[in-house]
Amino acid sequence: MIKKIILITFFSFLLSSCDYTPIYSSNNSDYFIEDISFDGDIEINNLINKKIKKFQSTNSSKKFKIKATSSYDKISQSKDKTGKTTDFKIFINVKFEIQNQKETKTLLVAEDFVMKNFTNNFEEQKYEKIKKNNITNLIINKLLIQLSLM
Asked: What does the angle CA 93 – CA 95 – CA 101 come to, to the nearest 5 degrees?
């Protein structure tokens, strides 16, 4: 009986000391982006610009200049017997040229996904916008990892 009480007490202390904190919940960045310039697709560039500003720290010793070139392509992947497109393949490519005091690196991020053709154009555009937003989050995460490694 005493053994059970000791084990329960031990495990309760052990489990109560566990802590979960999301990685990107707070701004733990140790870098500052002095200048960022964009070329290419305007919508993707605006999404990247909005999301990257959250992770900037103004009082950092690591300073970067970034030039981003993005492209967005939507091509027909398959068609039915009548010639109407049933599936689209969407490619999003972003090339980052990252320059700090010591070196210049190039990061190329390419993502793609397949999307069904909707009968309702509004629903298709809404779904496409959600997918662009999700892929932009992936691209930003890869950029932030690269910045923290430099």
From this structure: 160
